[in-house]
Amino acid sequence: MKVWGLTFVPHLVPMIRGMQATLYVDLLDANTEVQSVFAKTYKNEHFITVLDVGVTPETRSVKGSNFCQIAVQKAPDSNKLIVIAVIDNLVKGASGQAIQNMNLMFGLDERLGLEQIGLTL
């Protein structure tokens, strides 16, 4: 079994909805092309968007949706990977997640009932 380290930091800021989390991971191989690993892993996941290098996810971009935006960046001159993810905690983090899981459990399209915008943006 490989041993690895992970630091998870949720950020609490004064806003009505949304959550940003930052994860710090010690890479076993500093030469790993992490952007392509994330892009390949999530390319067929409808509700997950891996952002281009240098783009920072924003909670306002996922407000009222079941989407998760992810950005990855290697820390300069280290083997530390920084992953930033944002969701609407009232949709993806709660009711939307429940609907998506129910759809999967019943063999339905996971997007069913989750692509409508439920609030005024």
Architecture overview:
It is a single chain. The protein is α+β, with helices and mostly antiparallel strands. It has a single domain (6-105), classed as Dihydrodipicolinate Reductase, domain 2, CATH 3.30.360. Helix content is 20%, strand content 26%. It is built from two helices and five strands, in the order ββαβββα. A five-stranded mixed beta sheet has the order 1-2-5-4-3. The longest helix is centred in the C-terminal third of the chain and has 15 residues, at 91-105. The mean pLDDT is 88.
Tell me the radius of gyration: 16 Å
The class by helix and strand makeup works out as alpha+beta
Give the number of domains. 1
Please indicate the percent range of residues in DSSP E strands (runs of 2 or more): 25-35%
Low-pLDDT residue intervals, each spanning 5 or more residues: none
CATH class: Alpha Beta
Can you identify the CATH superfamily?
Answer: Dihydrodipicolinate Reductase, domain 2
Mean pLDDT: 88
Beginning-to-end CA distance, first to last residue:
46 Å
Q: Which geometry do the CA atoms define?
A: globular
Number of separate strands: 5
